[in-house]
Amino acid sequence: MDNIVVEALIRALSVGTPLLLACLGAIINERGGVVNLGVEGMMAVGALAAFAVASSSPDANLWLAVGASMLAGAALAALHAVATVTLRANQFVSGLALALIGTGAAGLLGKKFEGLPLFNKVNDWNLGGFIINPFTVAALLLAVVMAFYLNSTRSGLTLRSVGENPAAADVLGVNVGAVRIWAVLAGGSLSGLAGAFLALSYRASWADNMTGGLGWIAVALVIFVGWRPLRAVLGALFFGFLYYLQFRLQGNSPVPTEVFNAMPFVLVLVVLALAGLRGQQGDAPAGLGRPYVRGER
Q1: DSSP for 117-174?
Q2: How much is the average pLDDT of 176-190?
Q3: Domain CATH for 223
Q4: In a domain, 296, yes or no
């Protein structure tokens, strides 16, 4: 029984890793007052960039592949930053466009990588009999560091103030636009890192639509966890456990496979509805989704 519980926990942590990384990126975005619905697209281009570098030769450096994924995610996020922060476009429309651009571009450019071997992959670590993935360790550490950064550092307070009341932050000499652009780029790089986990470790291959809607779940997870990094760990673990159940029960149950495939997305709707009923949306930054124009109220 204990082995089953430990196995379920490890699997849930592993499956929940890309959700946690992408959720942390979205938290940084939204703490700065910018909504980015393009997480799915940034994960897709991050996965493609990582696989393209890692599959280029048997001696390819996996660190370069990880760096490429983060740069690709940040590059796509830069389009969103220009559109929403500089040009003050609607953040929701821009984010949706980003998701479509990212997934479409990754699918098109990734055609030539389908079926190619991955010479090296990021293997799990054996820490005293406890098997864990390096991406999972990095995600957990990032959650702790981000919580400390947002709550206990001057720059974290600046980021939060820009998301809560950009006009007040501007009066105090904060460059609101620069802070928001930095937040969007940081969020994009973490989404790209989530894609690298899929390409270099979890699936260790490239296939069109390999993100499978995880980016959309990560966006919803931000609301569910109340924009708090440490809560995001529990939220990712919860949804990771759902995916683990999905894999374990498929083929061992009379329930159709489609029901298990839809389970995580149905639960997203349920938890968001529960969050709305108990007023958790009140935890959102006050300036979230609103473009800032100096002198306007």
Answers
A1: --S---PPEEETTEEE-HHHHHHHHHHHHHHHHHHHSHHHHHHHHHHH-HHHHHHTT-
A2: 97
A3: 1.10.3470
A4: no
Structure confidence at residue 179 (pLDDT): 96
Q: Cα–Cα distance between 117 and 83 in angstroms, integer?
A: 37
Q: What's the mean pLDDT when you consider all of the chain? A: 88
Say which amino acid occupies 134.
Answer: P
Give the domain extent around 167.
2-283
Q: In the structure encoding, which two tokens stand for residue 57, read together?
A: 């030769």
Q: What gap in Å lies between CA 26 and CA 19, rounded to an integer? A: 10
**pLDDT mean over 196-207:** 90
Q: Which tokens go with 197?
A: 């986990």
Residue 220: CB partners within 8 Å, gap ≥ 6? 268, 271, 272
Q: How far apart are CA 211 and CA 157, in angstroms?
A: 33
Q: What is the pLDDT of residues 4-49, one digit of tens each?
A: 677 778 788 888 999 999 999 999 999 999 999 999 999 999 999 9
Residue 137 burial (CB < 10 Å; 0-12/13-18/19+)?
Answer: middle
